[in-house]
Design a protein that fits this description.
The chain is of the alpha/beta class. Helix 6 packs across helix 7. It contains 8 helices and 9 strands.
Length: 216
């Protein structure tokens, strides 16, 4: 029964309805965006940017990320049925959804994402998705940024009124008409390395930088 429901939810007409429902809901937020200008200027100057967020916080940024449509951005989304729904919303929002994850099809998807990031200058990555553990930044983000010669820009979301789901990531859903703040961190430039210890140091540095925003 559950499989049949998920199959129904991935139908094109349902995806369109879901996309519009998400947009309408997110428009109720009183959204404040901070420190966006620096990394946008970096792209306009020929640089490349990988936006990084926790799985817990991605719903709240869907509405604003639609404004990046002119940059033809990309994002990796899992090949699961849940991922199918999210990919449909992403495509309607102007984002290229590249299907894959750490557990299935991730290697090939990462290669495609690297090429798209090199081509357009903008991509995003959910650093602990799709299944966690929460707050554990996976190496894919580091490999992606290094391979595409991109800076990492953390994305942080807070809401004055929100629900937190009983899920592995304590998924954050801002309540209607809440004050939501989307803050971008400083650009992080990583030096390419084939050294395992140095790669782990870089991964841990980005993880520690982003952990302060995670609600646990």
């Amino acid at each position: 029964m559950r499989a049949r429901i998920k199959s129904l939810l991935t139908q094109p007409c349902i995806t369109v309805l879901l996309y519009h429902a998400v947009r309408v809901y997110c428009r109720t937020f009183r959204l404040t965006v901070e420190h966006e200008e620096t990394w946008l200027a970096h792209i306009k100057g020929g640089g490349r940017v990988l936006l990084c967020a926790w799985h817990q916080q991605f719903f709240a940024i869907i509405r604003h990320c639609e404004s990046y449509r002119p940059y033809r951005p990309s994002i990796m989304i899992s090949q699961s049925k849940d991922g199918e729904m999210i990919a449909g919303v992403a495509l309607k929002s102007g984002w290229l959804a590249i299907r894959g994850s750490s557990s299935r099809g991730g290697s090939q998807a990462l290669k495609i994402l690297v090429e798209k990031l090199k081509e357009t200058g903008l991509a995003a990555h959910i650093v602990d998705g799709p299944r966690g553990p929460a707050g554990k930044l996976k190496r894919g983000a580091i490999h992606l940024a290094q391979a595409a010669d991109a800076v990492i820009v953390p994305m942080y979301v807070t809401a004055d009124k929100a629900w937190y789901f009983n899920s592995w990531d304590k998924f954050l859903l801002p309540k209607p008409f809440s004050q939501v703040t989307l803050r971008f961190g400083a650009m992080i430039k990583l030096t390419p390395t084939g050294n395992t210890d140095e790669l782990e140091r870089q991964r841990k540095y980005v993880e520690d930088t982003m952990l302060s925003s995670l609600i646990v």
